[in-house]
Amino acid sequence: MRQTFPALSKGQVPMLLWLLLLILAPGREQSELAPKAFIRLTPPWSTNFKGKTVTLTCEDSHSPAQGGISWYYDDILLKKKSGKLQIRNSGYYKCKTPGSSLSDPVHVEFLSDWLILQASLPVFEGDDVYLRCQGWKEEDITKKIYYKDGEKFAVTYDSGFIRLNSASTNNSKYHCTTYVEGLFGMWKESSKALRIQVQELFPPPVLTASPSQPIEGSPVTLKCETWLPPQKSDTQLQFCFFSGDQALGSDWRSSSELQIPAIWSEDSRSYWCQAKTVTHSVMKRSLKSQIHVHRVPVSDVNLEIQPPGGKLIEGDNLVLTCSVARGTGTITFSWHREGTIRILGRKTQRSLSAEFQIPTVKESDAGRYYCAADNIHGPILSTLITVTVRIPVSRPVLTIRAPRAQAVVGDVVELRCEAWRGSPPILYQFYHEDATLGSSSAPSGRAASFDLSLTADHSGNYSCEADNGLGAQHSDRVTLNVTVPVSRPVLTLNPAGTQPVVGDVLELRCEAQRGSPPILYWFYHDNVTLGKSLAPFGGGASFNLSLMAQPSGNYSCGADNGLGIQCSEVVMLNFTVPSRSKITPVTVGVILGLLSILGLAATAALVCKFRTQKKSGGISATGTASPNDCQEPFLSRSFGTETQESTHFEPPALMELQPVYSNVNPGDRDLVYTLVGSIQHTKEHLVNPGDRDLVYTLVGSIQHTKEHLANSPRLNWKHKGPTVIYSEVKKTHPDDSAGQASCRGWAHEDATESYENVPSTSLALYH
């Protein structure tokens, strides 16, 4: 390729060369390798005419060099030690300073030829080269032709020089020719062939690693080391690093260093780098360097648990952290529980620790845990750590165990509180309503009991509480009804304090002060059950008795709420019948006669009847309360009254009062006839002193037939004189109620003892 360059004048050549060669900058900081010294020529031409003198100056990065300079001529050490050397002989010259290595050789020729080709020195890779074709007598030359490897590439017509771009060490040969005009005509002159001396701009880089044998996981710094001569220190270089065939980092960079944050064992391979000028005119690469990364085995494996101490509550999150004190590269962590073959978890990563989480732990997660770490050298185990899982108590269940279906005052009941789940120990609290009854501890968990002796105040709602320090739980409420046995009732007659007369309504009021409802009250007159009344909400009950005859006799009542009957004291009600006319002696005689006759028959029948009942043990029936059920003896109270004129009335329930005036009809069954005569006596007629009423009672037992009874007339008998009432009482049959039968025991005895003339005789009602 031929290039033509403009010619330069003689005055421009030295100025331009000095500008090119004397623009020197401070030396670039180099690597640990000592930079080369370099030689500067004055004048800066590689070829000169013989007899000329060239001055050589040895320089390094600390130019100019100060003493201790070594000069070499064709590899022969010269004695000259100064920084400058003047030469006139052709040959290769080198120098060395104390702070540099040996310079590249500079070949300088001194020729006696008529035409020479000169090249500028020094020339570095990538620089432009200046060539000058010089004759012995320059004024005789008008045209100069330049050749490269025999090919003409430039022509000049003056004494200037030409410029070659971007010189390289390609060993090309250059020469020039000219035509000289003389006395004898024109002739051709040719110069000696010239090889341009191109110095290396920078040596091939050297890749170094720091540290040279890194430990796995540690950072590594790669350096691409080369240097520029001081006179080319302003040249900008770029670098690129490679691992195998892959570029590292961000391709080309201005820095000659590359920082690898962490290198691993799999990164063990060859590395190399490249350096080039910004203009891409010069590019060189380093040799490959092998980097071997060392792996450190794991050691001191440790297991930590969150929360600290390993004490968890069911539902918490368990975090297991496995760590190693030393170890490089990829580490495989695994977690295990003692006694199980299955691995709980496994992680492989480049770190010294790893976490494994068990969310929402259960009771079955309790145990001893450990972890293992391995980076190919074999697993290393940690120590065992115990994990405990405490279970909060579940909602307890309260049960009440009583000795019978219905709890009664005085019973001892067991309050049993049980939580089906919960870590021991568990403290149980027992409550009645909002009051604390007591507490009991269950060291092994499950249930605890509390014994309670019942009183009347213990009815209500019961509950319990379980607590094992992880939160208390309350049971549902359980209602307990404590049944209170009835107390001994009190019978009162209303209206109280007045004299009842025939036709009045007498209220029998029975009330027990204590006792759980409902309470059933029974009312008795002698051995007769008058009726019953239910008090569903407790308290007392009343029975209204319509008085159709003189109600003299013993009254009582019983109270029962299923826990046994309690009977009241006997209340005796007496009537005194006032006399309307004087009883004549004849009347007295008739009455006494009748009483004597009837008395004998009635007495015999009653004695026989009484004996029969005693032998049979009395009449009983089921399902009815009676005075015989009362265990305590009754006390008697009497109400002294005077009756009005008697009238006929309809008997109340369970009682028949039928006046009969025929005592002679025989029948199939025993009839008891009672003659009650109320006779007004004076002191003269009676032995007993005092003007008071006497009641004569004649009781007889006579056999009658149904026909006779049917034919008996029933008449109302009134007269002004003494009043006599005949009351027909039916025979007691085995199908009577128990209450009726049981009440007879005491009523019969009292009745038999009351058939005497006493100051106030009871008016009895009989079946």
UniProtKB/TrEMBL annotation:
Transmembrane regions listed in the UniProt entry: 586-608
SUPFAM superfamilies according to UniProt: Immunoglobulin (SSF48726)
Domain of life: Eukaryota
InterPro entries tied to this protein: Ig-like_dom (IPR007110), Ig-like_dom_sf (IPR036179), Ig-like_fold (IPR013783), Ig_Fc_receptor (IPR050488), Ig_sub (IPR003599), Ig_sub2 (IPR003598), Immunoglobulin_dom (IPR013151)
Keyword tRNA processing applies: no
Keywords for this protein: Cell membrane, Disulfide bond, Glycoprotein, Immunoglobulin domain, Membrane, Receptor, Repeat, Signal, Transmembrane, Transmembrane helix
Name of the protein described by the UniProt record: Ig-like domain-containing protein
Organism: Equus caballus
Gene this protein is translated from: LOC100630490
